[in-house]
Amino acid sequence: DGGITQSPKYLFRKEGQNVTLSCEQNLNHDAMYWYRQDPGQGLRLIYYSQIVNDFQKGDIAEGYSVSREKKESFPLTVTSAQKNPTAFYLCASSMGDRGNEQFFGPGTRLTVL
Amino acid sequence: AQSVTQLGSHVSVSEGALVLLRCNYSSSVPPYLFWYVQYPNQGLQLLLKYTTGATLVKGINGFEAEFKKSETSFHLTKPSAHMSDAAEYFCAVRSTNAGKSTFGDGTTLTVKP
After folding, report:
1. Closest approach of chain A CAs to the CA of B34, in angstroms?
2. Using CA atoms, how far apart are residues A48 and A38, in angstroms rounded to an integer?
3. What pLDDT is attached to residue B30?
4. A45: which strand partners?
5. What band does A40 get if pLDDT is binned at 50, 70 and 90?
6. Set of chain A residues whose Cβ sits within 8 Å of the Cβ of B59
7. Would you say the C-alpha torsion A61, A67, A68, A70 has a positive or negative sign?
8. Which end of chain A has fewer CB within 10 Å, C or N?
9. CA closest to B49 among chain A residues
10. B2/A17 Cα distance (integer angstroms)
């Protein structure tokens, strides 16, 4: 069954700790994305990758880091430099052609205490 | 540059009434346009998309949207609302020369019995 998985569903961390959110897809998609969602602000792009071993900053990359060592995996690290990390994080993937839609994972809700 | 404006952060309709969710976009080149739906604490799911060809696009769950270039709009409609349509709806644009999509802030649809 093809799709995107994100783990964990809920994550709690203490302030000042780095945390890594997992995103895996078995759709054979070239492109992968990370979004942050806050109430009333829609989706804001953190990082995206169009090919393995390459990624670009999105609109709100400060305080986040990513890697794309494998086509199916695109983990996101929320570092201690991110001032307000509590949010709902969504991972997505798409085929390379720009007219193709994005497929989204179920999301990870991160709460920093 | 590309941008999206969704008019109305909250829309409320009665069951059986017409649903109209508004989306206006800005793009310097021909755009690809998408509507997604999100249920609470879940990822987004594609409703429909416009790439090329017919400007009236039909999607899942009885939704449709019309691409109007002269009005730079892509409004989402459904003739008769169901209780199950209550969710948040996002319009997105991707210019044909862009590496990423831009999402609107979302419209929360409430359906009253």
Report:
1. 7
2. 19
3. 83
4. A35
5. confident
6. none
7. negative
8. N
9. A101
10. 35
With tokens 């759709």, the residue in question is A27
Distance CA A74, CA A5 (A): 11
Give DSSP secondary structure letters for B36-56. EEE-TTS-EEEEEEE-SS-SE
User: A55 in contact with B at a CB cutoff of 8 Å?
Assistant: no
Alpha-carbon distance A35 to A88, whole Å? 9
Q: Has residue A20 got a pLDDT over 70? A: yes
Cβ-Cβ contacts under 8 Å, A4 against chain B: 43
Tokens of B37: 């739906």
**What pLDDT, in 10s, does the model give residues B18-74?**
999 999 999 888 889 999 999 988 999 999 999 988 999 999 999 999 999 999 999
Chain B residue with the nearest C-alpha to that of A5: B43
Residue with tokens 């995107």: A4
